[in-house]
Amino acid sequence: YSFSHGIEHACATGLIRNACDLRDWIAALLGHGSGGIDASLVAASWRAETAGNDDRLAELATLADAWRATAETALESRAQGHAFLTAIAAGWPAPRLDAYRQLLARIERQPAYACAVGVGTAIAGIPLAVTVLAFVHAFAAGLVSAGVRLIPWGQSAALRVTADLEACLRATAAGAIATPPEAITACALAAEWTSARHETQDVRLFRS
Predict the structure, then answer these.
(1) How many whole angstroms separate alpha carbon 51 and alpha carbon 3?
(2) In the chain, fewer beta carbons within 10 Å around the N or the C end?
């Protein structure tokens, strides 16, 4: 919950003013931006780990870095990736998890959060469909949580936003499972602009 994915700057500049604006912003990220991209990376990493395909895992780690449009979103992905791998290694240590971290070290890549989730859930035997839907729900929930702290509205409005996004979340998850990352097209320029501008914002509550 240290990251807002550019939403802090969007709120500061009036692009997001209320719950409806926040809902539409998150839906755009899911349908046309980083939410959908990362969901596809989760699915592809899950499949690569299930198949024991280290070459594919290396490709996905590189691709995940290439998809980061700003320094702030790159920081967000790395920090969350490190935190996720550290947490599951402490609670559920596994040889394949160690092997994945060694693979990243060999190719000199930091763990991307989406790829780490795909690998970790595959190792744990969590089904693909459940994994991807949970990931996109967590993505949206984190941004709704940021909105609660940035906009003067309460938990009831936050729950309505989450409920209104249900169909979008399911569609994003289904699309991610069906679409490899190499085939993704994305266009969320306003989100990328706010992320870049947030880096030099005078007063910040969030890291991104």
Answers:
(1) 32
(2) N
